[in-house]
Design brief:
Elements (H helix, E strand, L loop, with lengths): L5 E10 L2 E11 L4 E5 L6 H8 L6 E6 L9 H5 L2 E4 L11 H6 L14 H13 L15 H14 L4 E5 L7 H18 L2 E5 L3 H6 L3 E6 L2 E6 L1 H4 L2 H8 L3 E5 L5 E5 L11
Helix pairs in contact: 4-5, 5-6
Length: 267
């Protein structure tokens, strides 16, 4: 039996004096996509940062067979790629050079990039349709192009686990779907395990295999989107009355309902 790619047992975390996570338990199978959802302040980003080794966690955290805080950062970066909510895009740096930074964990100390590293970058640029933009400065990219460049740098690390913190943040509807479709395609082709924070509940209901719902730092539900996303759950944890629509394929659409709407206006 294949070991899970991510194992979380009784995971907790404290930021300053505040307890940000309490007793999170979940396994993520190799090749699975787990979406992490919840209202603002639920602990979603903190959980991803625990898996990325950026926040000290109590309990048991195993990602790709290692404890994030127990291995050197370069070793972890060869296994796990983390994309934060607002990645830094250095002004003036080209897309190609930025994606090449993803190879840093594989370059020996005091060494330089080898032909194999440039080959990986070329493959990733082609996969994300960025070859024509390789020489363009990052600050000249559109929002969708910038998100693809960030994803390309993460994929160039060749880690088996991809951690994405709201990868569609600040994108329009078309680019949101394009980025998530791309993530799903690359996951299936490359056998990646994906854990992502998803803000939009409809996107959460259509892309991840399973969802983990957090509120107040505590897990309140985990399971397939069509089982987890219910009208009662949305009302209880987001405070929003919504209609949940399930299509025959299992995808879920969450439509908020306006409360106290005014009546029709007559001329």
């Amino acid at each position: 039996m294949t070991a899970p790619a991510v194992v979380l047992r009784a995971v907790g975390a404290t930021l300053g004096r505040a307890r940000a996570l309490h007793d999170v338990d979940v396994d993520v199978a190799a090749g699975e996509w787990l979406g992490v959802i919840g209202p603002n302040g639920a602990g979603k980003t903190t959980l991803l940062r625990c898996m990325a080794g950026l926040v000290k966690a109590s309990g048991h955290v195993i990602v790709d067979g290692v404890r994030p805080g127990a291995v050197p950062a370069r070793e972890l970066a060869r296994r796990v790629a983390y994309v934060p909510q607002s990645p830094h895009l250095p002004r003036g740096m080209t897309v190609g050079d930025y994606v090449l930074l993803g190879r840093t964990p594989h370059v020996p100390w005091f060494g330089v990039e080898r032909a194999a590293d440039f080959a990986v970058v070329g493959e990733v640029l082609a996969a994300l349709d960025l070859v024509s933009l390789a020489s363009r400065p990052l600050d000249e990219l559109s929002g969708g192009e910038g998100q693809r460049a960030v994803l390309a740098r993460a994929l160039a690390q060749q880690g088996r686990v991809l951690l994405l913190d709201e990868p569609t943040r600040a994108l329009d509807l078309g680019h949101q779907h394009a980025v998530l479709e791309l993530v799903d395609t690359l996951r299936r082709v490359r056998g990646l395990t994906v854990v992502s924070v998803v803000h939009d509940l409809t996107l959460a209901g259509q892309f991840p295999d399973r969802l983990l719902v957090l509120d107040g730092g505590r897990p309140v539900a985990v399971g397939r989107p069509e089982k987890v996303l219910t009208e009662n759950l949305v009302l209880e944890h987001w405070g929003v009355a919504a209609t949940v629509v399930r299509d025959p394929g299992g995808a879920v659409t969450v439509v908020p309902r306006r409360q106290g709407a005014p009546g029709p206006v007559h001329a």
